[in-house]
Design goal:
The chain contains five helices and no strands. By secondary structure, the protein is an all-alpha fold. The chain has a single domain (about 1-155), classed as Four Helix Bundle (Hemerythrin (Met), subunit A). α3 packs parallel to α4 (about 90-110) and α3 packs antiparallel against α5 (about 130-155). The protein is globular. The chain starts with a helix and ends with a helix. InterPro entries: DinB-like, DinB/YfiT-like.
Length: about 160
């Protein structure tokens, strides 16, 4: 039951109707292309770079779900934040959104294959348990969803 609850909650934030507002996919669909590359004053990242960052951390979890003990992402590196992410066309934006959706689908598929006891097991190659990791990917999505919507809101008010 916990596995199903995780999958349901992660999907709700991703493309459902979370209680707090728009989902990640719903938000991205409403952001004009012109806002994807802009870094507002006192902001480190653009919407495009944040979306790529979210994708990369989903792939981190996917690798752990696959049992890859050596895969890791060191904070504040190129693996954590891709360099020079620019979305120049609707096709490029759609490609990034598709990559995000594919990573989400693979993550959910792999989680659904796990037994409930897996949640209490140590994450391969890490010092924490899988329950902590799944909480983390969910919190990560919500955190960056807030950033994305805040940046878009700032840009729309200019």
């Amino acid at each position: 039951m916990e596995i199903e609850n995780y999958c349901s909650t992660i999907n709700e934030v991703f493309n459902g109707e979370p209680w707090f507002g728009n989902s990640l996919v719903g938000s991205l669909q409403n952001i004009p292309l012109k806002n994807w590359n802009v870094k507002p004053k006192n902001t480190s990242n653009s919407i495009a770079s944040i979306v790529c960052h979210v994708i990369d951390w989903k792939y981190f979890v996917i690798e752990k779900l696959k049992g890859n003990t050596s895969f890791d992402i060191e904070l504040n590196t190129k693996a954590d934040w891709r360099e020079n992410v620019v979305v120049s066309s609707e096709e490029e934006r759609d490609k990034i959104v598709l990559e995000l959706k594919v990573s989400q689908e693979e993550l959910i598929k792999l989680v659904k294959e796990k037994k409930e006891t897996w949640l209490r097991e140590k994450t391969v190659g890490k010092q924490y348990i899988n329950d902590f990791m799944l909480h983390g990917v969910l919190q990560h999505d919500v955190y960056h969803l807030g950033q994305i919507n805040l940046i878009n809101s700032q840009l729309n008010s200019l």
